[in-house]
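FAQ: What does a ligand-bound record look like?

Like this one, built around pyridoxal-5'-phosphate:
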Amino acid sequence: MQIGVSFSQQSEEVPLPRPSGVVDGLAPYDAVSSLDAIRALPAGTVPLKLDWNESAIAPSRQVIEAIQKFLGNTHHLNWYPDLGATRLRTALSAYTGASVDSILVTNGSDDALDLLCKTYLDARDDVLVAWPTYGHFLVFARSRGLEPRRVTVGDPFDVPTAAILKAIGPRTQMVYLASPNNPTGVVVPADDVAMLCRTFPRTLFLVDEAYHEFCGQTAAGLVERHPNLVVTRTFSKCFGIAGLRVGYLIAGPAVMHQLRKLYNPKSVNVLAQVGAQAALADKAFREEYVYEVGQSREFLAAALRARGAEARSTQANFVLVRVREPLRLVQALETVGVFVRDRSHLEGFGGWVRVTVGTLAQMQDLVGRIDVLLQSLPDLLA
Ligand SMILES: Cc1ncc(COP(=O)(O)O)c(C=O)c1O
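The answer part, i.e. the structure of the complex:
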């Protein structure tokens, strides 16, 4: 009897396992990474990876040293991690001012968003997002069998509070607000968040503060008073460890009680926990980077404007530039080793390209490369 089946023997008629009804109806999430293009650059070309809003520099030396030291213990990879990342939560409590019990550490803040959607959403729920915003949230909401309602404001750079107030209905289960928002940079003031939470106590307000450190404002202090508020944060931006995948959320006891039903306490890996603790401990490194990004953000926006472009600075680690032919700009920049993100296809955001901001030297280098391109393509920024 033959038991092995080779791939060539599988015909189209063989029935395949059926995915869940919700997943069956979805298109694959299409993430575009520049890493392959960066690896293929000619030797000697220094890449400027400015497309995913990561930190543009390596993390603190202390992160590398802490991981190397940790790996010195031969058992440190064969044992499961510190369950629930207790040590990291204790450090985060000191950093955020929130209690240890109100912090949950996740595999990047993406995982926090996913967990919140899994825990709180059913297919019939109404979910609002202030649009345009971080697209991956839509994927997590869709996995629950619903399509979030996109609330737009006439000018995408206006604060969306009034529009959200108008759009919330009796079935609105969740409202997603990124602050500063990606890609607009818009900040929702904490007072607005408090007012929304007070007015709609049955709705869960999710404030995504991935870029918090670059703007300084936060709604985290409101969590104690508002049981319907969750704030998510990440180590992927100013802490420089996007590759380790660490994020966290801050929420009150009622939300935490629900989240713990599905939360996997061993899902954040050991190296991520050690790296995040070391990154958190190096305050000077973080503060210097955040300060420098603030300076180079203004430098870049001004340099783009000086070259005739419509450019906007933000309170996050990116600058926006609006051009007639965004794809042409993105492709031209790639020819000189610069990778930025075309956001122009987002509804209400026509023409805008997002450029991650790094150090001043990197932004000067970027402007130099743009100047070279402008010699042969003088209307590139028009
Ligand atoms: C608003 C926002 N939230 C979350 C994330 C994802 O962060 P993490 O790397 O922590 O999953 C990003 C990444 O760009 C983002 O822009």
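Follow-up question: can I read anything off the structure? Yes, for example: The chain has a mean pLDDT of 95.
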